[in-house]
Amino acid sequence: MRYSEDAFLRAQKVKMIILDVDGVLTDGSVCVGADGELFKTFNVRDGLGITLAQKYGIKTAIITGRESKMLAFRARELKINAFYQNKKNKIPAYRELQAEYDLKPEEFAYIGDDLFDLAVMNDVGFPATVADATDEAKSVAILESDFAGGHGAVRQIIEFILKAQGKWQSIVDGYMHINHENKTSEGISQ
To answer: Which CATH number does the domain 5-176 belong to among 3.50.50.60, 3.40.50.300, 3.40.50.1000, 3.40.190.10?
Structure first.
């Protein structure tokens, strides 16, 4: 993944990562059951990336334009700090996060892929996107994953942030020594 020095420096300031869902955490496909319930698939590498970010002090939030019981379950499973559904206009939820966590725009990363994401992407310090995002989202982002939404893009972007903050090698070292020290990775969600 190519990146600028500016992207690397901005990633060092990130204290909260806000995620869109459709097209970012998923590939954008939606299956609808007979009862109207929406079904989506999620990438476990993205899930582990989210969990590692949290473990190393970065808060997480989801702001999505749809509502889904399955998504609410996934957000609980990953222990997402703040979860907003049914928000076509994402700015009010973003402003709530700023106030609740006392964070400045430059302390937020936002990973989005489409028109609904542009307003928040345009305000945060670290706007990022997926490989199959719209041209408009790509034009606002300072970092573009090599991967499409739902296929590891979130994980790659989170790794970049953790590397910029000097935390990634410690994570890798911890996993290298799990079996040697009779430790487990129990409690880590994917």
So the answer is: 3.40.50.1000
